[in-house]
Amino acid sequence: MSELRSKTVPLNGAVWPKPITLEGDSVLLVPLSLQHAGGLKAAVLDGELWGLWFTPIPAAEGMESEIDRRLSLQAEGSMLPFAVIERSSGEAVGMTTYMNVDAKTKRVEIGSTWYRKRVQRTSINTECKLLLLSHAFESLGCVAVEFRTSSFNFPSRRAIERLGARLDGILRSHSYHPNGTLRDTYVYSIIAGEWPAVKANLIDKLGKRNRKVE
Question: Structural domains in the chain?
Answer without folding.
Answer: 5-210 (3.40.630.30)
